[in-house]
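Methods: example folding runs. The two proteins below were folded one after another, and each record is reproduced exactly as written to the output file, sequence line first and structure-token line second.
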Amino acid sequence: MTLRPRMLFRIAAVISALYAAGHTFGFQAFRPPSAQGQAVFHAMNTVFFQVDGARFSYGEFYLGFGLFVGAALLLVAVLTWWLGNLSIRSPDETVVPGAAITAFHLMGMGLCLRFFSAAPAAFSAVIILLMVVAIVSARKTRQAAVGYK
């Protein structure tokens, strides 16, 4: 059985949404296991500084940027779902946005391997594989529709 581009994009979108949810809830639930890590975590949330007249802690920056990354991952999931619809009407038009999303996940995978762990990198790897296969499949579908060999 061959999966059509639409289904491949949709599977990638669902995995992307799971990745977004895992990131958003996971980073907020993380608590350092060591005493040193707990001291850093405590300091991040109790040491404040001023920026443009507003008072912040490093913990608030961490939380804010973490939620922003979760929102960005969710946006990528929505765009990936949209590519599934686009692959039916205009398969050639999935190439550029699909390649951009794939590049996003390639960069994310590299950053995860360098700074985090294998689990989020694995999500990106699966999404990358699905995206590449979906894009190639969409191109072949288009070529078959216009009679190319």
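Second run, written to the same file directly after the first:
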Amino acid sequence: MTIVFYILALFLTAFTAGILIGVIFAPLLQKKMVNPARTYQKKYHHVEMLQRSVHNPLLQPRGNGFEERAVFNAATFDLDGSVHLLYRAMDKNNTSTVGYARTKDALHIDERLDTPIYVPRADFEQKKGDPHWNSGCEDPRVSIIDERIHMTYTAYDGVHSPRGAYTSISIDDFRKHKWEKWDMPVLITPENVDDKDIGLLPQTIQENYVLYHRVYNDICADTVSTLSFRKPITLCIEILSPRPGMWDEVRVGITGPPIRISDGWLLIYHGVSHDNTYRFGAALLKENGMEITARTIEPIFEPTEPYEKNGIVNNVVFSCGVVVREDTIFVYYGGGDRVLGVATGSMKNLLHTLRAQIT
């Protein structure tokens, strides 16, 4: 009986100790089991590598016409001493066209036209659904190749899946504001595929054009020998994908076309987190424009200002155009899908951060 008593006493002691350990340490163990993405969101505290202009927003909606509801997501290029902004404008019926503004110092607007320079013309971008649903020519991006301005954008009729479209105009006609000279657009992405964020590498590689596009959640590339686009692109050469548990875990897409640097290309991209917040990151590409050599761990820019956190879509910074002047990079972006702002940073610092990751 004595032996049985001691065994029972030991068992009860161990059982009681187990309960006490559980009570004491359970909260600590629970903290380690939270969603890794949420842990990351709580943990990271970084200094943004891009600083927003004190003059933001550069452009805001105005009047009661084509840009009454929103002006945002501008294609950009530097030509003749000015940065040209081809921005997405939305009217009260959510029809998107392309407006035009120009800035000499890249920070203050010197010219802004009262009418759009590009409007829906093809059947595939005419409004077919509810008269107040989104439609038209969305999120333009521009590359200059061989004395022509090549513009890609998202064409949407409000009913079918949005598709990538392409058009171009000569630099000479652009300078003369001969907007009727834009080529008739052609579709470049397949039907019934979530394929947006279209952009061209501003240089041919081995006599081929490199076209970037977002297929579902990934940045992809395709190569084409001509820009006639007689048939839609079909390849998805994976360039960059979301990272589980990170600030860009849901979806990634290019901002403007990549920027030429001495040893390849610099790509600024947007990433979307689990709470649908849009931020910017950066990556280095090899000479062929299709292989990543480095990528920022932390975002380089995120929505913090009221015009970025509150808008038609909240918590959004979204760019379609980047310009570099000497050591300064200018990232033009839509804030809250309603206004246009610009953020600047040092190319030297950004490239140093990225190249430090290359082994």
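Comment on the second run: The longest strand covers residues 135-145.
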